[in-house]
Amino acid sequence: MMVDGTRGPAENDAMTLQLLNRIGGARVASVTGGSFEVRSPTDNSLVATAPASSAADIDRAVAAAKDGFALWSRMPAPARGEVLLRAGRVLEQRKEEIALLMAREMGKRLEEARGDVQEAIDTAWYAATEGRRLFGRTAPSELSSKLGFTVRRPVGVAAIITAWNFPVAVPSWKIFPALVCGNAVVWKPAEEAPAVADLFAAALAEAGLPPGVLNVVYGDGESAGAPLVAHPGISLVSFTGSSPVGRRIAEVAGRTLKHVSLELGGKNPVIVLPDADLDLAVDGLLWGAFGTAGQRCTASSRLIAVGDVAAKLLPRLIARALELRLGDPLHPATDLGPLISEQHRERVHARVQDAIRGGARLLCGGEISRDPRLAAGWFYPPTILETARGTPIALEEVFGPVLTVLRADSLEEAIDIANEVEFGLSSSIYTRDVSAAMRAVERIDAGITYVNAPTIGAEAHFPFGGVKQTGNGHRDGGWAPYEFFSEVKTVYIDYSGRLQRAQIDNRL
To answer: Does residue 364 have an active-site annotation?
Structure first.
């Protein structure tokens, strides 16, 4: 592990942002007047203060969204798409500004932060075109002089609750389709990344989104998120976060029959066969396991080495992992930025230590650095452990730069190992054998499978999501969310001039 320089906390205290909720087109403080601090995980500098919103703030935001919905839902869908087109242009113009703030606020490397914003730009372009593609269907009626077809209609006010690790890309996956379909939105961003959320919302306002159509309330899950999910004025809930929280959201929303879309955890396998291009596999494993310091639901958290491939693969992988540099995410030489908080680093480290006590073999990393240049932030080194099947570290999500190595004697056993976790988000196989690749594609229980690529790398125009405990069947990305954020209405037009009784008058 190598280290580059980091800044001291005094350097950025003068750059503190004072955030306000965005409700009905106005910038307002919380009803209670409370606020919370957001500190950089890199150096503990104060990035922003934001309103600590409560149920009363949620009431105001939902009321404003209902007013916004009355206007927005009547605007033609192509016109709604044009607003998203302009929003994409604003995001493109402000890409560097947003990326710099993202790197500082939640610790994502600047290169990755730029990619996060670019994904939102791509999603805006895609969403703009969907304003002209909210297709219905026609089918022949069983009666003469009668036409049947379907149209898509907006649902109402959508609650959007997003995580901190992709503070622009993931909100765009949800908010843009919701808006194109004609819904209004109340968005609660993660409390770890409200400043970037504010820039995202500002881009939509600058693009001409009418007041009340997008409302933003800041705060934690208990005080702001829970009353938002339970609010009777909410028709849809789209959530990205942990599986335990997702289950609670589904329970609460189910009582009032709200539409719910959940994108939850992952424990993603990478199968490497003996015939694989090992240099390519090592590149992919490093990027998949340690990109965003492993804080991705799609992170490559399990390497399943088949046959004798481990003997050649592991030395290369370990050597490359030891070369990765921890440090300031704004520094171009940095490979891994910090974890999001001290508490999260403690959890990750505890999981690693528990695994070692349980018999796992530590191959690299696993210790918090004592380098004084990292002392102000929450850094954790790239860590590789080898363990047996069925251990907690092999089954449970860690959400940090921790790669677990397991061994299999055959592709069939590797697929069994891949499938023995409760999650099913992303997966990968490295092989030159197309038959082996296709068997993996067919048999791995996951919403996404990559061949000769890591488990990360979703593109805006394809569906994103998983199976089993990773979600409830809905998808973000691509064409899929437009189905979630709209309802099908069937229309019959009878121009016969007489009563025609279906299933009766057309039968002899």
So the answer is: no
